[in-house]
From TrEMBL:
Heterooctamer of four alpha and four beta subunits. Keywords: Autocatalytic cleavage, Cytoplasm, Decarboxylase, Lyase, Pantothenate biosynthesis, Pyruvate, Schiff base, Zymogen. The modification Pyruvic acid (Ser) is found at residue 25. The gene is panD. Pfam families: Asp_decarbox (PF02261). The active site is at 25 (schiff-base intermediate with substrate), 58 (proton donor). This is Aspartate 1-decarboxylase. It comes from the Bacteria. Pathway: Cofactor biosynthesis; (R)-pantothenate biosynthesis; beta-alanine from L-aspartate: step 1/1. Binds 1 pyruvoyl group covalently per subunit. It is found in: Cytoplasm. Its EC number is 4.1.1.11. It catalyses: L-aspartate + H(+) = beta-alanine + CO2. It comes from Sediminitomix flava. One of its GO terms (molecular function) is aspartate 1-decarboxylase activity.
Length: 114
């Protein structure tokens, strides 16, 4: 039996941009993506600590070392620059394997850097 579990999370990053006119997604600094083992195009859940919103979208690679966290398209209406987010990725795995799996937890600094 397969279950869905937490694969990784980027905890408490700040929104640096919101681009309503972009096609969609969230742009994330590539350093943060690497640290959390998240790839471009991967589905993620975004939790906004400021307003309680939960959004599902996919990741676009942002400039490495820039600290960029940009909500694009319709999701841009759900955030304000400066809002604090948690970016969560999940994976499916066998139940027994999941019992011993340890998710990656990334805690960036106030500038969204590791």
């Amino acid at each position: 039996m397969f279950i869905e579990i937490l694969k990784s999370k980027i905890h408490r990053v700040k929104v640096t941009q919101a681009d309503l006119n972009y096609i969609g997604s969230i742009t994330v600094d590539e350093d943060l993506m690497d640290a959390a083992n998240i790839i471009e195009g991967e589905k993620v859940q975004i939790v906004n600590n400021n307003n309680g919103e939960r959004i599902e979208t996919y990741v676009i690679k942002g400039e490495r070392g820039s600290g960029v966290i940009c909500l694009n398209g319709a999701a841009a209406r759900r955030v304000q620059v400066g809002d604090v987010l948690i970016i969560i990725s999940y994976c499916s795995m066998e139940f027994e394997e999941a019992k011993s799996y340890k998710p990656l937890l990334v805690f960036p600094d106030e500038n969204n850097r590791i």
